[in-house]
Design brief:
Chain lengths: ~325, ~325
Amino acid sequence: MAILRSFGWKSLNQERIVLAIAIGLFVMAALALPGFLTTGNLVAILRSVSVLGILALGMAVVVIGRGIDLSMVAVMAMSVAWYLQMLGNGVADGTAFALVLAAVIGVGLVNGFLVAYAEVPAIFVTLASGSFVFGFVRSQLISQDAVPVPRGHWVETLGRLRLASVPPEVFLFAGLAFLAFLFLRFSRWGRFVYYAGDNPQAARNIGIPVRPMLMLRYVISALAALVAGLLTAASLQTINTRMVNSTLLYDIVLVAVIGGIGLSGGKGGVRNVLYGAALIGILLNAMTIIDIPLLYQNLIKSTILLAAIIFDGVINPRDEQTAQQGDI
Amino acid sequence: MKLLKTMVSAIALAAALMTPAMAEDPGPAAYSAALTGKKVVLVPLAMGFDLAQGWSAILKREVEAFGGSFETRDPNWSTEAGAQALTEAISSDPHPDVLVVMSPDLNSFAKILKKAQEAGIYVILIDNPANFPADAYVGSDWNKLGQLEAEAVIKGCGEGSSGKIGLVQGDQVNATSLYQYEGIMKVLAEHPEFSVVAKPDSNWDATTARNVTATMLQQNPDICGIIDFWDATAAGTSAAIRDAGLSDKVFLVTTGGGEKTADCATLEDGTYGAVVMTDLARESGDMVAMIKYLLQSGQPAGTASPYIYTLLKATTKADLAPDSCWDLKAMQAAAGN
């Protein structure tokens, strides 16, 4: 064991395992698959995980603070669908956007309030608020699942924008990842997120405004969802609210958690989101190039994820301290 | 007196003569006896897409016109919710007389629908075939639909093209996806100069369609045509083609409900090369005819299971006509909702 330890086996936590798998897959795909290692394909990989990555950043901020936001996909799809529907109905752009922004911040505040002050578990609050947002917008505010982007609108222009043939969501993902990194690492409130996530009681005792900060985190995740929704609409020229029923929500949690952000809070950072996104992006791209049917893709994806989790469990067994935290 | 007698007999005679002319047409009475108060319930995959809203508007108008009641259930793309809606409808009292059902896949609803027939409810399957002997299937022949798409893409690629075709399938359980694929491959087998170079699934999600198409075009930049199995995902596929700068080189074929903004506007602006469209008015008309027939037939539910296929046509920009598409907004405005 001592020898093993000196080789640094213990330092092989889930984050590094995932990074290692991602690099391994990348090397294998680059060697075996023609056309994998082209600029175009690398941009395509980045792009395919950018929206997912932005959502995962928002989720990460909430999860590090020992919470979870299951309303993100509903907020993402429904806010943008309502926005586009208002534009289609002739509402002025500024008014429509202000309304949507207010609604999105409102959902974040309500989520945060119920978790922080009413002390309802986050998983129930956000599950319910997600359903409410979907149901209310779908039944009261929009007439169809799919709402198109009006011709000539700035969202359409955004979707056609290219800088060195790289689409805007990649830059936004990079920019937001950097911002999130600065916030979590260097801002005082960012550091407080870790304290609050690690031990909320202790954080409160030393005078950290735990509850207002908790509300802020849910507002951040709601805003991340709005950005992701706008980028999706820009790229497809339409938004389909059917995505609320898709596996996107699980993929967001997956990207955050597989990269090593513990659901028990207080652990991880932006780097973990990037590793998780890289693994998923490379994996899906390689499987699409090989033309593996979707059913097998899901099987392979879940097998790799399970393997990473089990491997982590074996080399980093749970001890008294980690077990006390109470995972979700 | 004699005059009076003559007059009375004349009137009697006239009355006797008049009777046959006054005799009622037996049609309306029989029609109304069989149809008045009958309950028709539509259970599509979801109410939120163009075809479902079109069917619903037309069925509602027709059923209410013959004095029946019309209801819809919205499972919102969830198979479980659909199954629950059906179970609940079957056990409700009075239960519906006709269930108009769009099945999510070949098998999920088979048992429930059999129960419905045993309870005396006629079952009309629409648009998505299933392994179940319904009282009628009204919708597309998906194999034929695939053949039309393949013919359209072959024509769109043209002579001397690379002959490379990409498919963006839906999934591997839905009959529309499976049969569509069969039809496409049947035609391509007769054209050895054309081959399928990639056939990813979109899982009916536009973002996934965009991502897989981007990869497909990256690997095969000389693809001359792509068939996307649904116009809702073709939004993603066309975005990938546009992003790759191949809008002029890749001929995109898809299928849809023939709604104006979804299909005709996109044919007009060149996003789609060809769309195999469903004739909504005719398809809904067939459903109405089957409902009227079954309710008057007196036959027990499950007696026969005919296929009422809707005529399909691949429409391109060249043969777009003012009546090629139907307008959902106008239809909803006319229905007052």
